[in-house]
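Structure ticket #2291
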Amino acid sequence: MTLIYKICPADLWREAETAGRFDGAPVDLTDGFIHFSTAAQAPETAIKHFSGQDNLLLIAVDAEALGKALRYEPSRGGALFPHLYGPLPLAAVRSVAPLPAGPDGIHIFPDLTRG
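Resolution: structure written out below.
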């Protein structure tokens, strides 16, 4: 199983749990797809887009469970990032973990090499 990751404000994720699916954060809705990162990309994504933010969650998702709606497309520096064209079904979620910011504003990630 290949895991991909979504960094999400906790309140937005709780709304998704209530709704039974995640339609995306405001940036996702604007761009027309849900942004994800690979394990290698997630820490840089956190620095670039979430530095200093509290109350974030790291959502681990089974990429294969998303089927053809998931596409890897060039983004930052030409790197291929996973983009989901459609809602994220909660059945594809493998874990939800807090993503705390350290004193320097950099988020403290769990070991993503175990996924």
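Closing remark: The domain at 3-98 is CATH 3.20.170.20 (ADP-ribosylation fold).
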